[in-house]
Here is the input.
Amino acid sequence: MEKGAATGETRRPHTHVLLVLAAFVIMMAGMKAAAELVVPFLMKTAISLATGALVAIWLALIGVDFPVLWGLLTFLLTFLLTFLLNYVPSFGSFLAGVPPVLLAMLQLGPVDALLAAAGISAINIALDNFVAPRFWARASGCRPWWCSSP
Here is the structure.
């Protein structure tokens, strides 16, 4: 044991090394936990962003005004409401589809409103049932038909 020069306290020679090693272990455990939280968050963001982009393209093709605004709204509502209402993940997609369908009805008529609703529904069904499970399968290492996305 060494005596501290200024304070006269006794300390073991490897105390600092052990403290640094303990801090490193705690930091690594925290990074692993953070990575486990970040991956699903990033995947949900990517799926929601793809949904919003495809909805914007579909609405632009039909001729609905402000397709980029509706695509952004779709992204935000799908993303936020899916996290808030985790047990009813389709609710955000449904809610995000209502305003552009109503606008299509007012602007273009009932046939185009049905086209807008059908396109938005098809995009959400395709991404939620086919694309998202493949993403989750790759991230978790399980087979796509066994994985369910949160």
Q: What stands out?
A: The helical segments are 15-62, 67-84, 90-108, 110-140. The CA atoms of residues 8 and 16 lie 18 Å apart. The two ends are 55 Å apart (CA to CA).
